[in-house]
Amino acid sequence: MILVAFLFIILSFSGASQISMESGTDTFVEKTSQLYQDYDHLFLNIFYTQSMVVLVENGDVTDPELLKAVDRLEYLSNSIEGVVETSSIASVIKETNFQTSGRYAIPDEQTQIDDLLLIAGPQSLMPDKQHTVIFVKAAGDTNENTLREILREVEFAAEFADFPPEYRVIVTGDPAFNVAMEDEMNASMGPLLLLSAILMIIVLYLVFRHVRWRLLPLAIVFLGIIYTFGVMGYVRIPMSMVSMSAFPILVGLGIDYAIQFHNRIEEELDKGESESKAVTETIKHTGPAVFIALIITSLGFVSLFTSSVPMIQDFGKLLLIGIFMCFLASLFVGVTLIYGLDVLGKKNRIYRKLASLKPSISIRKRKEANSKNEVDSLEKLIEKTTMTTIKHPGIVLFLAVSLCMAGFYTDSLVPIQTDMKTFVPTDMPALVDWNHMADVLGGGVYLNLIIKVDDTADPDVLHWMDRFSEHETEARSDIYGADSIVPIVKEMNGGTIPDNRNDIQAIYDQLPEDVRNRYIYSNSMLLLNLDIGNAWEGLGIKGMEELVNIVRTDVMWMPPPPDVSVTITGDTVTFTEVISALTTGRVAMTMLGLFMVFGGLIVIYRDWLKAFTPVITMLMVIGWAGGIMYIMGIEYTPMTATLGALILGVGSEYAVLMMERYFEEKEKGHTPIEAMREASKKIGKAIITSGLTTLFGFSALIASPFSMNSNFGMVTVIDVALALLATFIVFPPVLVYLDTWRDRRLGRIIPETNEVY
């Protein structure tokens, strides 16, 4: 078995080498959706370009030497494979100089440059005399690996351009930010797993003291994580901002299986059973219970597949694969190792013979402690808590239900975070540079309208675009301007739009190719951009949805000419719908998870009581979690939107394990109260241990440099604690009360006492 485990480790390393990093739009939007088709095919591939922005500052940017360095940078950047276009103030000056003097060069004299800038007029490439930018553009559909290479070449070009030393040169823009974010994700993965392991070592030493080889479950779960990495590469699940958080979660979840098997086999060995008998009893009783818990956990995670966001679906796939890998590692490798270690612990044949008559020293000590009624303090606390809640079911359930209902109400008041830039470390250099660039350039946000036409030079279409742009700018307070080919045509025709298509086409033919490509595609599409400024901050997700719907309505009430259609798309529209799908779909996702867990338990047990009790307990926890988020002021993000499914997956497992042991004890002839007392004593410590290790595993996420993951870690730690509390406070009275009620109805009798209950 160990040799097979090592073989799979080798295969896993091979698979892990195939894992790719992704942070693009296709991690947020399903490629088969109409939303993605419009964004990708109409906007991204045709009109959109990805710009590396080189910002130059800290000096007079009209200085001839500085402009010549800018010109060198632009020349070097144009030679980079994948670059489709560059623009800078240097090229504007050269073009203006050529038109006025016939010389396509940057003058050596400052006065000449000042004169040319006056002729050229105001330029967005030079917001003021202390700042200028060089745009290095790649096609909108350029893949991330190519963008990374272009960015590296642009950085080299900025060095070779030999800028004067007093100037500061910053390479930034969305591609630079995305690359830096991916690098930060990669860099943070190892420390998070290491921290998770350290925290779990502490917990296992403190709580799992009643067994030998107390750190073995941690080794087993990391073996399962290695297998998960391998499968992840083979089935092509990418690493994203969300999926990277799955591994600390899996460490927390997976160790539970190893602990349960470890605890049970030690319990059997404590009875003086042989190693083979202990293994048989462990597999017979704990195997099915843990496997059922695994199935129920999986059903909770399956609800993540209902999300329309690919990275949430990948998160669900990764969690499913991970818990199965950890289960298999615990069942086969974990049990095998404990069996082998116990056999090897017998020093010689004589000792082994004596061991069949006399327990080992560690076992004997524990039995002596039990004979003196030295019950572990944690066991006492668990037993006392369980019995107290069973004696006062009305008070417990009233408080639980009340807090649950309050939590569901306040959950609807929890705000939604829509700015992706807030999800990354605030001190990340790439973010600091990006924010500085936005401050200098203004950083406008646009709604992009793609207008499909039969003829891009049709005067009626341009007149409609002009009227519609004017209407939106004047009538809608959140729309500050419009950008299209129309203002350029009007400027070149004395302020009006020609009424003849041939005249319009003649103007098109005079325009530089990069200008035409910015607004016109072939003879079938035109682009109209509506500037909405920083609407994200002011309107929020609901306001953005309303603004997009208003523009759609305006198109209907102010329709374009016949046979012309308008599609509203772009980054803003796409991201608005994605965040909306994440947050508004969380309730449906959670409800589906509840029904799937209930259905799975019904199929497995064919008993309504065994299906209902764990589900109602976790419903309480989900309600409490919403209230906690509201009280702590934590916003919903793509990660926290998955909490309902996660609580179901984690909490149901504890409830199922407790329930399995309860009915095992009841089959021995105990009354419901006695059975719950025995179950809480015998399996309670293992559940507490696994719960605390899960909690500490999740707590590693709090140290993540990404605020989205850090907040998620904070909330999940609280929610796991709530799930543990519910398992020992809410679950026992519910199960005992309902089981007692059912037994009374059926008139069941305990053979030993002849008592009807």
Would you give an account of this structure?
The chain is of the alpha+beta class. It has helices at 2-16, 34-44, 64-78, 89-101, 110-120, 144-160, 174-207, 216-234, 246-270, 275-302, 310-344, 349-355, 361-371, 377-391, 393-411, 429-441, 459-475, 485-492, 501-510, 513-519, 535-557, 571-584, 586-605, 608-632, 643-667, 672-699, 707-729, 731-746, and strands at residues 49-57, 83-87, 131-139, 168-172, 446-452, 481-483, 520-521, 525-531, 565-569, 749-750, 755-756. The strands form three sheets. Strands 5, 6, 7, 8 and 9 form a five-stranded antiparallel sheet that branches. Helix 25 (643-667) packs antiparallel against helix 26 (672-699). It starts with a helix and ends with a strand. 45% of the residues are buried.
Question: Top keywords for this entry?
Answer:
single chain; 757 residues; alpha+beta; five-stranded antiparallel β-sheet; four-stranded antiparallel β-sheet; 11 strands; 67% helix; 7% strand; disordered C terminus
Instruction: Pick out the low-confidence regions.
Output: 347-352, 354-375, 750-757
Mean pLDDT: 81
The largest sheet is: 5 strands, antiparallel
What is the alpha-carbon Rg in Å? 33 Å
Shape: elongated
Count of individual helical segments: 28
Let me know the number of strands.
11
DSSP strand content: 5-15%
Termini distance?
A: 48 Å
* Helix share, percent: 55-70%
Write a brief structural summary.
By secondary structure, this protein is of the alpha+beta class. 67% of the residues lie in helices and 7% in strands. The chain has helices spanning 2-16, 34-44, 64-78, 89-101, 110-120, 144-160, 174-207, 216-234, 246-270, 275-302, 310-344, 349-355, 361-371, 377-391, 393-411, 429-441, 459-475, 485-492, 501-510, 513-519, 535-557, 571-584, 586-605, 608-632, 643-667, 672-699, 707-729, 731-746; strands at residues 49-57, 83-87, 131-139, 168-172, 446-452, 481-483, 520-521, 525-531, 565-569, 749-750, 755-756.
